[in-house]
Amino acid sequence: MHDMILTVREGDTMYTTKLMKVALGAGLGLFSGLAMAHPGHIEGQDARVQSLIMSIQEAETLDLSKTTGQGELTFKVHRTSKDLPAEAHKGLNAAHGGFGPDRRRGKGEVYFYLPEVGILKISNDMDTIDLVPTDKDMKPNNMHNTTVWYGKGKNAYITFPGNGNSTIYTTELDGTLVDKLYTPSKDLKWTKNKVSDYFAKGGKFVPTDVEYYDKQLYVATGYSSLDYVLRADVKSGKNFSTSWNGEAFGGKGDGVGQFGTGHGITNGPDGKSIAVADRAKSEIDLFKPNGDYISTLDMPKGSLPCDVDYIDEYTVVGCLKGPKPDEQAAPIYILKDGKIVSTILIKDDLGLSKFTHVHNSVMIKHKGVYYVIAQAWNPGDFVILKQVK
Questions:
Q1: Which of 84, 283, 308, 330 is spaced 20 to 30 A from 14 at the CA atom?
Q2: Domain boundaries, the chain
Q3: Which letter does DSSP use for residue 141 in this model?
C-alpha cells in the first residue's frame, strides 16, 4: 500500500504530514507518521488534520476486545471517528447534535450533522459513513439534533434544529433543502400567553430538537427561558411548507409537565405520544400529542439525559453526565419496562477518551444485531458500538 501525504497551508507556510495506510478490520485506516511535540498536540496542523490524526492515534491504541454493558446488551467498538470521511474532522471537535435513524423496513440508514461539514449518512450495515451534499445556507451552522420522518406517499425528510441561528431546516434524504422555519412573528397569538409575550418582546427562538407527528412539527426550546414545546403545521409533498400554528405546552418551571431544560423530543414508544427529555430534572416526560401530561420516567439523579430513543422493547437514553461525575464519565442507559438493564460506559470501559459527556445516542438493529451510535460533546467525538453475540 502507498503512503498518503496530507498537506496543509497556514498563511505562507506549508506543512506536510505522512499518513500510512494500514488494514484495520474490514476497512482501511490511516496511521500517522507525524511526531508530536507534546502529547495530544500536533504542531503546524489545522483543526481538521489534527482531529483526524488524533482519532487515528487513539484508534490504534484501543483494545478492541473490551466490552461495555451487561447481559444480552453488551457491546464492543465497531467504528470510531477514524472511519469518518476526512472532511468531517473539520467539524468533529464542535459536534453538538444527534442522530436520525430511518426506521422504515428495508432502510436503516442513520443521518447526522456536523457544523462546517454538513449532513452525513451511516449505511444500514453500520460499516460506512458518507457525506451528503448540503445546502450552503446550512453548512456554517450547528444542528442540535436530527429527525427523519415520513410525509405523503414515499416521501421521507430530515429536519434539523439550528439552535445558533434560530432556524429549522428540512431537507430530503439526498440533502436537497425544501424548507426553513424561522422565529415566530411578534404578533402571533399562542394558546399560552407566556409564549405570546415572550416573542412579542423579542425573545430569542432557540430550537434544541424537533419531532414530527401527524402533519405537525413539535419543537423543543430548552436552551431559552421559554422552554415550551411549540407546534407548527406541515404540508409535505411538491409544495412543501411549514407554519407556526400557535399551539404550545410545557414551559419552564417545577410543576407537573413543566421543564427544567426540555432538551430532546421524540415520538413515544406507542407511536401516539410525545416524549421530552428534561435534562435538568433527569427525567423523561410523556405527553399526549395535544400537550396533556401522561407520565414521568425518572432517570438516576444528576445523569442529565439529553434525549431518548425507542426500539423494540427498549428505551435508550444518552446522558451528559453520570450520577457520580467525579468517579465515572457519562453513561448511556438502556431500559426495559422502566428499569435499567444495561449501562454503557464508553470512556471508562472502552477507553475512548473524549466521551466524558454523551450528547446523543440511538440504537439500531441490523440482521438481528443491535448497534449503539453515540456522539460526545465538548470535545466532540463519534462511535458505533456493536452488540456482542
A1: 84
A2: 46-387
A3: S
Largest CA distance in the chain: 66
Q: How far apart are CA 289 and CA 218, in angstroms?
A: 9
Q: Given the C-alpha cell 440504537, which residue does it identify?
A: 363
Helices (H), the chain: 47-61, 89-92, 193-200, 346-350
CATH no. of 46-387: 2.120.10.30
Does the pTM surpass 0.85? The reply is yes
Those residues whose C-beta lies under 8 Å from the C-beta of residue 388, and which sit 6 or more positions away, are 67, 74, 75, 76
Contact 59, 82 (CB under 8 A): yes
pLDDT of residue 34: 37
* pLDDT, tens digit (0-9, with 9 covering 90-100), for 182-195: 999 999 999 999 99
Among 27-31, 143-147, 281-285, 298-302, the least confident range: 27-31
Burial class from Cβ neighbours inside 10 Å (0-12, 13-18, 19+) for residue 13 reads exposed
d(Cα 227, Cα 206) in Å, to the nearest integer?
A: 9
pLDDT digits (tens, 9 = 90+) for 260-308: 999 999 999 999 999 999 999 999 999 999 999 999 999 999 999 999 9
